[in-house]
Write a structure and sequence with these properties.
The complex is a heterodimer of chains A (178) and B (165).
Chain A (H helix, E strand, L loop, with lengths): L1 H6 L7 H8 L5 H14 L1 H14 L1 E6 L2 E8 L2 E8 L10 E4 L4 H22 L14 E3 L6 H4 L5 H10 L4 H8 L1
Antiparallel strand pairs in A: 1-2, 2-3, 3-4
Helix pairs in contact in A: 3-5, 3-8, 4-5
Chain B lengths: L16 H19 L5 E5 L3 E2 L1 H7 L3 E3 L2 E5 L3 E14 L2 E7 L3 E4 L7 E4 L3 E22 L4 E7 L4 E7 L3
């Protein structure tokens, strides 16, 4: 029995699973890497969700320890969220204009889903000792899908130049390989 | 020679009564408006410090900045731009500039927004002097916006260098 117990090992936790527990301990670089990872690895899933949202105008999803509610109205999408053990939803966290054609709308929605996932993982991580439930919801003011994120609120042109110069961080490589 | 002083006719008002009443009402309104206190907000910036919680949970050395926006009236959210200043070669430089952050107040503390997760990796080194700074805007529950700014005051040493290779 003792020898059998020695053979039992914990599964190696992959880095994405670890990110789901880190919450506010995710650094700036890690959050951006997480966004890029989610956007590229969940493209198909997000496409299906985008189609459902466009046809039903409302869609709910669960990420880490949170529930997210998306709503589409008059060429705009918005989301609000709540911790799973709470009844109260936050006020609208982010909103984004959708395009006029369906392919553009779907592409933008995929980015919006990835951004909202990062926001929820940051604020409502899976069970973790460090979480303080009484702290308000915090986000990057400029979302990762906006060029203004890269210029930190400056011009879009500067944001584009900086975005071109950014490369895949070590964290993103880690997310894709581990 | 007799002369008569004309009697003033007190029954005919020189200023119309409606105008007098109007002036009094305006003055009362102005006085009551002036005594109403404007809401005040302040940004409390703690000095940058080595985070023990991040060190324990992730094994990494990070310099953390705690910022709290406190008002004497309920607020919806606060948006801040924070940075860490350091002394390098006898002059003050920006060691790290954080992304702009927005945080809601919560039901338990409707007047307060606490900024977490403002940290940057650093590597152990000889002590470096740091100061935290932040500025931003608070949107109050009544719809008014208030500009806020703050810093951690005196520069303090931490044995960790931002951006050290």
């Amino acid at each position: 029995m003792a020898s059998l117990a020695e053979l039992v090992q914990n599964r190696v936790v992959n880095f994405y699973d670890e990110c789901l527990t880190l919450g506010e301990n995710l650094g700036e670089e890690e959050r951006l890497a997480l966004y890029r990872y989610l956007y590229s690895s969940k493209k198909r899933e997000y496409k299906t969700q985008a189609r459902a949202l466009l046809s039903q105008k409302r869609f709910c999803n669960f990420i880490a320890n949170g529930e997210v509610e998306y709503k589409v109205s008059s060429n705009c999408v918005e989301f609000r969220t709540r911790r799973l053990d709470s009844l109260e939803f936050t006020p609208v966290v982010r909103e984004m204009k959708l395009g006029l054609t369906r392919p553009i709308r779907i592409r933008r929605l995929k980015r919006f889903f990835a951004q909202s996932a990062v926001d929820v993982i940051r604020n409502f991580p899976l069970a973790s000792a460090d979480v303080d439930p009484d702290v308000g919801f915090g986000i990057n003011t400029f979302p990762y899908y906006s060029l203004r994120h890269f210029s930190n609120g400056g011009s879009k042109m500067l944001g584009l130049l900086r975005k071109i110069r950014t490369y895949d961080s070590e964290v993103l490589v880690k997310l894709r390989t581990l | 020679m007799a002369f008569t002083i004309p009697k003033p006719n007190l029954l005919i008002p020189k200023v119309p009564g409606v105008l007098v009443l109007g002036l009094i009402a305006t003055q009362l309104l102005m006085l009551s408006g002036g005594s109403e206190k404007e809401p005040q907000c302040e940004l409390k910036v703690e000095r940058p410090h080595l985070s023990t919680s991040v060190k324990e949970s992730r094994g990494a050395d990070v310099l953390k900045l705690n910022v709290t926006s406190v008002c004497d009236a309920p607020q919806k959210y606060t948006t801040i731009q924070a940075d860490i200043q350091s002394i390098h070669k006898d002059s003050q430089v920006t060691a790290f500039k954080f992304e702009q952050q927005t945080r809601n107040s919560n039901l338990k503390e409707p007047n307060t927004a606490r900024f977490l997760g403002l940290f940057v990796k650093c590597l152990p080194s000889d002590p470096v002097l740091y100061q935290g700074r932040a500025s931003g805007k608070v949107l109050l529950a009544n719809g008014k916006t208030i500009s806020v700014t703050g810093d951690s005051g005196k520069f303090y040493g931490e044995s960790c260098r931002i951006g050290a290779k």
